[in-house]
Amino acid sequence: SVVRDMQSDGALNASIDILGSHCPGPQNGQKNPTPDVLAMYKPLWNTEQHFGLPDPSPHTCWEFITALQLAQTINKQYVVTNQTSVQMWTPIYSWYDFLPYQGKGLMVAQRPWDGSYNVSDTIWALAHTTQFTERGWFYVGGSARGLLPGGGSFVTYVSPEGSDVTLVIESVGATESQTLRVTFVGQLTRVDTLSHWTTTEGSVFIQQPNLTRQHNGTTGFFEVPVAPNAIVTVSTTTGQQKGGADTLINPPAPFALPHHDNFETYALDTLARFFADAHGTRTQQHPRCTTANIFSGDTVPVSWSWHARQIAVWVIVVTKCGKRFLGFPDAN
Known about the structure:
This protein is α+β, with helices and mostly antiparallel strands. It has 5 helices and 20 strands. Helix 4 (64-79) packs parallel to helix 5 (121-130). The longest helix is centred in the N-terminal third of the chain and has 16 residues, at 64-79.
């Protein structure tokens, strides 16, 4: 493995700053980083996180369970395995739904003919972290992160100056409400109020009344209520908001058939409108003509996914260059 090579090769080890892995952890049906990986003392990143768990999963981004699982993934990958980055695949789901991995995105925009799109709950699940932190903030270890006894987890982020703090909690799988008592130290003991945002099914990314510091003798603390299957953020930061579209979103409409295109407006080596590449390329190669690079038998491109070999789409294109067939005649 790369880690074993790094252990025996000092120059290689010195040249690598971060260790990344694809959909790691038991939530994705994978193993956690092994002890030899943790012993490298390198930052650990999740360099590709799919939506819906385990991976692959039938859950799509517009289902509430996917939003909950995203919050769970972001939290637990730090709580359990010290991973400090989770990179989403994909920010926007915009390929046709007959292709593999339907609905794997923060947003849905896969109907270019009508301009409709969907802002799913996963956007606001991510906002529970991203709207309350900034680049350069730090995770806090020790008792500032952990698992909830009734189900769920919590992580804490602090600003570089130590003057602002954010706590993100998820309670996926919990069956009863829980209360998390939060006590600050250092300069944060001066904090009197925390902004308070929650997500539950049907009420997503909602601002609640601020939490006020309580006192027990000389010790100040905050009590954070956590409903089952919820996401909760409390923070010293302010200014968060749940955005909305500046204009009305077009309603979905069926693709108009028959579809006509004279292919006279495209630059060379570009994709014609509404075409979607899968396991091959379809590009404009001559004015008024579209050509297909069709592969069959042993001459195939590097496959993105074995699922792609199962797709067969026949397209008849009639241009001034004549009639052309685009497709894979040997596909299943």
